[in-house]
Amino acid sequence: MAAAHEFALYVENIPGGTQWRITDSGIIHRMRTVLRARFDDTVVFFSAREQARAVVKAISDREILVAFAERAPVVPLMPLIDLVLPFLERTACEEAISAATVLGVRRIVFVRTQKSAPSPLSPSFKERLHRIMVAAAEQSKQYCLPEISEAATLATALPPDATAVFFHPTGSPLTAALPTLEKAARIAVIVGPAGDLTADERDALAHKGACFLRLTPTVLRSEAAIMVGIGVLRTALQPMPL
User: Largest CB tally within 10 Å, which of 1, 117, 122, 240?
Assistant: First the structure.
């Protein structure tokens, strides 16, 4: 009989073997009170390296027994997408990180620009961003958490092997660039901060070969541009099923 539900739960490590007797109170609490898992439900446990589908065989307030059905490595969505993100205000930054995780961004590079917000990447905020990424991955069933790093300038933030695109209302229609993007194994997406990049910063991106692409006839907030733009890219560029 097929399981009634399938949940996803991030854990630091997934043990080997065919069964896992869970006694960790934190995991038990999440499975019982957050996921509300029941006997015979399916749970996909995932870590930074592996995902494992398991079926709940016994559940109580002290331990949970699951049987593993299959395992697989965690792999990023293709094409690889990096996000070059100017520092945003805290709430906007959190929304941007959540959207990027849901859409399978492989790497997020924070960068300082003339109009970006002060750097929010304190150790406590990094930990909060990790929790946001985990929640977004569990909800979306996209199990590859983005890597987060910083770069000093826009130029150093762009991977040399990536096709760079900058979402901007003055750019060309995104559909015009799809034939080029379809050939790219890696794409670097750049969005501007509140107030946009300066003319000099935009010129620097153009000098680096970035393609300026328009998403809508209106001006979007940075976090909205991420959701709309990368969402369109994922829809248009998703690999054909074998």
Answer: 117
- List the one residue out of 152, 154, 158, 161 whose CA is nearest residue 202: 154
pTM above 0.90, yes or no: yes
Q: What is the dihedral of CA 109, 110, 116, 121, to 10 degrees?
A: 170
Contacts of 79 (CB under 8 A, 6+ apart): 181, 184, 185, 186, 187, 237
Nearest in space to 120 (alpha carbons), one of 69, 219, 111, 18: 111
**Which residue shows structure tokens 């739960």?**
9
What is residue 111's predicted lDDT score, i.e. its pLDDT? 95
CB 223 within 8 A of CB 194: no
Give the chain's count of helices (H) and strands (E).
7, 11
Which residues make beta-bridge pairs with 111?
A: 86, 151
> Distance (Å, rounded) from C-alpha 98 to C-alpha 119?
18
Low-confidence stretches of the chain (pLDDT beneath 50): 1-3
d(CA 78, CA 171): 25
